């Protein structure tokens, strides 16, 4: 089948859209195109997937929707797979007129995202969130299928859509990610101090919503109060405003580094250089039911992690004993917990092997890819 993934907020090489879903579909023989936006234009085939990326247009969401509409007018596909609530109505119109199957991939609880992080007046924020929620309830049932990432989102849409598949962002493992880099490149990308005793790493979105100040303050306390030569490294993409903000914060301490995003094939190697993964998020309502991708990237690399009390992560830590659960979101408490674990020899090779085993047993993308392909087979069958 011909498949078109379209996103008005992600680049074409997005981890979930490209590296997980599109490559899995292409490997199964589907003709896959990914359309998205980014800092640079792209029109090429990457690992068998046609990638069409335009430079982010000025004018916000309306301009992005206009660009997508222009592309869809000449698109030739059997399945349109969209990734944002904003494009639901337009996508439904095209799917209906062209007899395409339509999939809505729900990456997060968008109304709750507005309530938690929007800078609008509280009343406007609540009105916007409710309107978006209503919009989803109107258009989600008109899709042929929904894909979600957590049980919470699956339950949210269960009453309005009969066909829902939950695909978690477990790590992929493919031959094309096995490139090796030279030892000199390693040193350039991994500036751990020579006297570093405890390496703590964060790989993910660099955003003030993630409150990385907590990690910086924790590392400072590990140094000053507990006498442990700890160092914190954060790696990932972010909005320009947030990157500028954290660049200033990281420059104010000698115990932390802020680095740009990794190539997909470098993730494991870089994570393996650390002792502990940072997976502590503020317990906002939008994060409470989250299942952060980085959790499983850490496990795949054999890296134990410390997490805040999100229910789904509690289950992972309880089942496999592969890390620490922060009792409070307090730098002093977290530093005390990490220092005790370090002195007790907790960060051992045995723990690293347990992390890898947990990934191999329960958290591989292979199992999710099978669910994705099963969904596409069902939609293909219903088209006959």
What's the structural blueprint in terms of helices and strands?
Elements: E1 2-6, H1 15-27, E2 31-38, E3 42-46, E4 49-55, H2 60-73, E5 79-82, H3 88-98, E6 101-105, H4 110-117, H5 122-139, E7 145-148, H6 151-157, E8 164-166, H7 183-189, E9 198-203, H8 213-224, E10 230-235, H9 240-251, E11 256-259, H10 267-271, E12 276-279, H11 285-288, H12 293-300, E13 305-307, H13 311-320, E14 323-325, H14 331-343, H15 349-362, H16 365-383
Parallel strand pairs: 1-2, 1-5, 2-4, 5-6, 6-7, 7-8, 9-10, 9-12, 10-11, 12-13, 13-14
Antiparallel strand pairs: 3-4
Helix pairs in contact: 1-16, 4-5, 8-14, 12-15
The number of E-state strands comes to 14
Helix and strand string, N-terminal first?
EHEEEHEHEHHEHEHEHEHEHEHHEHEHHH
The structural class is: alpha/beta
Put simply, the count of helices is 16
CATH topology of the largest domain: Rossmann fold
Spatial order of strands in the largest sheet = 3-4-2-1-5-6-7-8
The general outline is: globular
Average pLDDT number? 91
Q: Uncertain runs with pLDDT below 50, 5 residues or more?
A: 176-188
Percent of residues in helices: 40-55%
Strand portion = 15-25%
Radius of gyration: 22 Å
The gist of it:
This protein is α/β, with parallel strands linked by helices and 384 residues long.
Provide key terms for this protein.
single chain; 384 residues; alpha/beta; Rossmann fold; 8-stranded mixed beta sheet; 6-stranded parallel beta sheet; 14 strands; 46% helix; 17% strand; globular
Describe this structure in words.
Helices cover 46% and strands 17% of the residues. Helix 8 packs across helix 14. It has 384 residues and is α/β, with parallel strands linked by helices. The chain is globular and about 65 Å long.
């Amino acid at each position: 089948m011909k498949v078109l993934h379209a996103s008005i907020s992600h680049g074409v090489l997005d981890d979930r859209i490209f590296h997980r879903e599109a490559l899995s579909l292409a490997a199964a023989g589907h003709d896959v195109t990914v359309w998205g936006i980014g800092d640079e234009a792209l029109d090429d085939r990457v690992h068998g997937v046609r990638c069409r990326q335009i430079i982010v247009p000025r004018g916000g969401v309306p301009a992005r929707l206009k660009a997508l509409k222009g592309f869809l007018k000449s698109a030739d596909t059997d399945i349109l797979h969209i990734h944002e609530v904003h494009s639901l109505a337009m996508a439904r119109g095209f799917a209906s007129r062209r007899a395409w199957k339509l999939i809505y991939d729900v990456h997060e609880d968008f109304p709750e995202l507005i309530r938690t992080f929007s800078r609008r007046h509280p009343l406007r924020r609540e009105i916007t969130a409710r309107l978006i929620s209503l919009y989803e309830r109107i258009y989600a049932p008109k899709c042929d299928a929904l894909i979600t990432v957590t049980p919470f989102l699956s339950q949210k849409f269960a009453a309005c859509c009969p066909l829902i598949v939950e695909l978690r962002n477990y790590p992929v493992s493919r031959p094309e990610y096995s490139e090796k880099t030279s030892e000199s490149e390693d040193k350039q990308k991994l500036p751990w101090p020579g006297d570093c005793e405890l390496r703590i790493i964060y790989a993910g979105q660099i955003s003030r919503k993630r409150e990385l100040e907590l990690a910086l303050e924790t590392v400072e306390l590990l140094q000053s109060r507990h006498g442990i030569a700890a160092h914190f490294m954060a790696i990932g993409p972010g909005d320009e405003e947030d990157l500028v903000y954290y660049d200033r914060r990281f420059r104010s301490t000698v115990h932390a580094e802020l680095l740009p995003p990794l190539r997909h094939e470098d993730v494991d190697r870089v994570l393996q250089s650390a002792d502990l993964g940072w997976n502590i998020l503020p317990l906002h309502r939008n994060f409470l039911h989250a299942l952060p991708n980085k959790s499983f990237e850490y496990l795949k690399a054999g890296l134990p992690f410390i997490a805040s009390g999100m229910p789904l992560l509690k289950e992972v830590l309880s089942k496999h004993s592969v890390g620490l659960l922060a009792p409070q979101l307090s730098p002093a408490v977290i530093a005390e917990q990490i220092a005790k674990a370090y002195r007790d020899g907790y960060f051992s090779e045995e723990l690293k092997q347990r992390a890898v085993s947990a990934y191999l047993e329960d958290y591989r993308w292979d199992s999710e890819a099978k669910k994705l392909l099963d969904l596409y087979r069902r939609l293909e069958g219903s088209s006959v």
